[in-house]
Amino acid sequence: MNQKYEAVIGLEVHVQLATQSKLFSGAPTHFGAEPNSNTTPICMGWPGTLPVLNEAALKLAIKAGLALNCRIAERLKFDRKHYFYPDLPKAYQISQYDMPVNGKGSLTIELEDEQGGLQIREIGITRAHLEEDAGKLLHEGIKDGSLVDYNRAGMPLLEIVSEPDIRTPAEAYAYLTALKAILQYLEVSDCNMEEGSLRCDANVSVRLIGETKFGTKTEIKNLNSFKAVQKAIQYEIDRQIEIVEGGDRVVQETRLWNDVKSQTFAMRSKEEAHDYRYFPDPDLVPFTIDRETVEEIQKSIPELPAARTQRFMKECGLSRYDASVLVGDKKLGDYFEAVIATGADSKLASNWIQSELLAILNERKIPIENSPVGADALAGLISLIQKNTISGKIAKDVLPMMFETGKTAEVIVKEKGLVQVTDTKLIEEVADRVLAANPKVVADFRAGKGQAVGFLVGQVMKETKGKANPKIVNEILTQKLS
Amino acid sequence: MTDDLYKLTLTEAVRFAGENSAAPLLDALRDRVAAVNPKINAILRFDPKRVIQADPRETVSTGLNGVPVAIKDNICIDGVETTCASKILKGHIPPYHAAVIQKILASGGTLFGQCNMDEFAFGSSSETSAYGLVRNPWNTECVPGGSSGGSAAAVASDMAFAALGSDTGGSIRQPAAFCGVVGLKPTYGRVSRYGLIAFGSSFDQIGPLTKNVEDAALLMNVIAGHDPMDSTSVNVPVPDYVKGLKRDVKGLRIGLPEEFFIEGLDGEIEKSVRQAAETLKRLGAEIKTIQLPHTPQSVAVYYIVAVAEASSNLGRFDGVRYGFRADTRDLKDMYLQTREQGFGAEAKRRILLGTFVLSSGYYDAYYLKGQKVRTLIRHDFAKAFEEVDLILSPTAPTAAFKIGEKTDPLSMYLSDIFTIPANLAGVPAISLPCGVTSEGLPIGLQLMGRHFEEETLLRAAYTFEKEIQLKQKPQVVSAG
């Protein structure tokens, strides 16, 4: 990136609220249903039907607003946003125009700077409002025309709009990661991008550093992963700088990200933009949000990721990096807490979860909450290591066996006779044999090649089929050689 | 007596059906519709073989004893074509019952015939129906009023014991006045709008068109009440309107708004309405002149706010899911051609007007200002109702006009000049006959009341009706 310029980035994130029914009708919301089966006459926009606000959706919206430090509106109003498209059954979307449920707020993000230091930034939230989703057009495999699936029509969405406070693609990534973690902790949304329950559009412009006015922005759509957001913003920044450097002007327009080509393409210009003709929806009477309800929701907010990270650092002695990884996925954090609740050493638990357990789970594409080796089982394995019953090396062989057999570590260790040998007499016997069989190595050691002891330890371990306690082996060998 | 069963009022029909059965009533109506409807086209759809009643597995009260009610064609009936008298909804079969339909069926009523109307309730003459205009049973050269002209004409010509209409700016009361029947627009929020195909969502109310005041009270007992499916319906207790009827207006304070007795008001109508006020005074009411200073802006405000809502409400008629779809090749064309061919001229006019007033750059000057004036008009009523219990006025400035007479939209809009204020303020209002012009056309008297005080309206109307005992009947009755 050209050092003369800085980027100004704002993100609009749509999350689907985790309710049982849609925003204004009783239609179910589960993913993957037969086309047009999750519908009622209301979300199909049948003439004569009327919307009734889903209270659960409103409460989730307020919960998210509170966690994002937003000002919660005192009065709630909905507006109609008009445009014609076959996936929009009423030819208007019920949204919130000038009185969003959540007003100004903020979100703190953390990211490492180039020197490896920690950088903390506060990104402003402009608003977070409720609106209904549209349906989906299906074109593929249809010869003549298109089909419409209204299962998604009327789904409850929270649109979270950030201030143009983001400056780099990495910050955008950190913002999304932090936002997703908070929403998952609140159980406001499952934030599943593949199923479309989290979507993101980015507004990007560039300006010379020191300039206070904004440059002309473009809006990037069709971003289907956080990585894509990061890549598309970077592409767009480079594209815009190139235009400005070339003496041209950036055109205000909507652009689509093409993930395969890793480029953005113009979709529509400002001139072609819709006049949405917003006006208050007369079918939904404005009403006052009762302060007691807000207080009750406030009380229901659980410990949020930032606080949990601090706790993991302070109480468990984890590094910020390790704590962040565990906290970043609420269920991973829960798993970790369940393991240490049994008394397992927290650093050992953190290491085992992040390296060995996740390696196997990721390879098998199993989410942590469905792990065949539960928290208790992993705690059992860790306790064997802590008690020196087995070595860490043996434990690494035991874990896959736990996955395969479903047996506890203790049972496997017993069945396979893997109990660590801590009997010094036995180890001394083996050590003597090894020393006798390797006079050259012993000579090397005595000649000052310290690393030769490693070979000898390995030989002892081999003789004991890995069951000897490596620490004891090391001690005995060092003693005998000196 | 049995030959004339179709002449019964709703109350009489319910009594008859309770003592005998509803079957002879249905037969009488079938014959009556066959004989009369070809002359006036009030009933749009009518299947003599199909009477819609409650599912026998559901518990229903026997209140209506199987007596049928005719329904305006903008109220959805599950499984029955409902078109708003528009080509664009031709063949549209709703998959659900409107709340009022459920209530009628749950009260043991049946449905029999859907009434013609102005397309999408846009009009004051029932001339804009895509399925042919409606004629006034008193004089078939005249319009029956609108938009519930079919409902009013069907009741006036004894093709229905009672009917439901909808009223956005006078669409129940003005045709009731033109056809010499009783029409009640309830308080906004009193009757569920769920299943009423929307025109102006903040104005629309469903209400009864009946042969007398008692019938209106009876039908209100059936349809009024809070509905959780309609967020604008209000949860206040519903009194027994029939039990509330009595001949007593003593001490009732009735206001005559200065702004309603103006140039353009037909002399005969004014005389008849002032006489009605005198009659009520004689019966013990206190009559006084009041001011509703912002009501002269009513028509202007209404044609901004109501059309804005209409333009939004009618967006969904795009040919994608239901009703008419023009045969085209691409998406944009499908929208343009479906709406071009599907909507009539008045519907298009209102969509254009409404789209304009909501457009960016015009919103503040029109829609927002309109809403502000609407608030002022509401305040006018609130203030007036501190001084009086009821407001009395003509329902319409003239009696029924000739078919084809009003070609200029503005002069047509002005025929709702006295009915629109009640919709802007959301107050209940009733129209009932108070006399007949020298040309033999009925004259309507309008009473407006406080929010949710339909009971007072009905009591005053009932007292007046019993006192004057109008005998004139529509011409089509004697000819039929």
What this model shows, in words?
- The complex is a heterodimer of chains A (482) and B (480).
- Chain A is of the alpha+beta class.
- Chain A folds into 3 domains: 5-295, no CATH class; 303-415, no CATH class; 424-481, Arc Repressor Mutant, subunit A (Orthogonal Bundle).
- Chain A is 40% helix and 19% strand.
- Chain A contains 15 helices and 15 strands.
- An 8-stranded mixed beta sheet of chain A has the order 5-6-9-1-10-11-12-13. In chain A, strands 4-3-14 form a 3-stranded antiparallel beta sheet, with no helix packed on it. Chain A has a two-stranded antiparallel ribbon with strand order 2-15.
- Chain B has a domain at 2-252 and 428-479: Amidase signature (AS) enzymes (Alpha-Beta Complex), CATH 3.90.1300.10.
- Helix content of chain B is 36%, strand content 13%.
- In chain B, helix 4 packs parallel to helix 5, helix 6 (213-223) runs antiparallel to helix 14 (454-468) and helix 8 (298-313) crosses helix 10 (345-358).
- Chain B starts with 9 loop residues before the first helix and ends with a helix.
- The relative contact order of chain B is 0.14.
- Chain A binds chain B through residues 41, 44-53, 80, 82, 84, 86, 89-92, 148, 275, 277-279, 282-285, and chain B through 74-76, 82, 84, 89, 92, 94-96, 98, 193-198, 200-202, 228-232, 308-309, 312, 315-318, 320-322, 331, 335, 355, 358-360, 363, 367.
Topology:
The complex is a heterodimer of chains A (482) and B (480).
Chain A: E1 5-16, H1 55-67, E2 75-76, E3 79-82, E4 92-95, E5 105-112, E6 118-132, E7 136-138, E8 147-149, E9 156-162, H2 169-186, E10 198-208, E11 218-223, H3 226-245, E12 253-258, E13 263-269, E14 279-280, E15 287-288, H4 291-300, H5 305-316, H6 320-328, H7 330-341, H8 346-364, H9 375-386, H10 392-405, H11 409-415, H12 424-437, H13 439-446, H14 452-463, H15 470-481
Parallel strand pairs in A: 11-12
Antiparallel strand pairs in A: 1-9, 1-10, 2-15, 3-4, 3-14, 5-6, 6-9, 7-8, 10-11, 12-13
Chain B: H1 10-19, H2 23-40, E1 43-45, E2 68-72, H3 99-106, E3 110-115, H4 149-156, E4 162-167, H5 173-179, E5 182-185, E6 205-210, H6 213-223, E7 253-257, H7 267-282, E8 286-290, H8 298-313, H9 331-342, H10 345-358, H11 364-387, E9 390-394, H12 409-413, H13 420-425, E10 429-436, E11 442-449, H14 454-468, H15 475-479
Parallel strand pairs in B: 2-3, 2-4, 7-8, 7-9
Antiparallel strand pairs in B: 1-3, 4-6, 5-6, 5-10, 9-11, 10-11
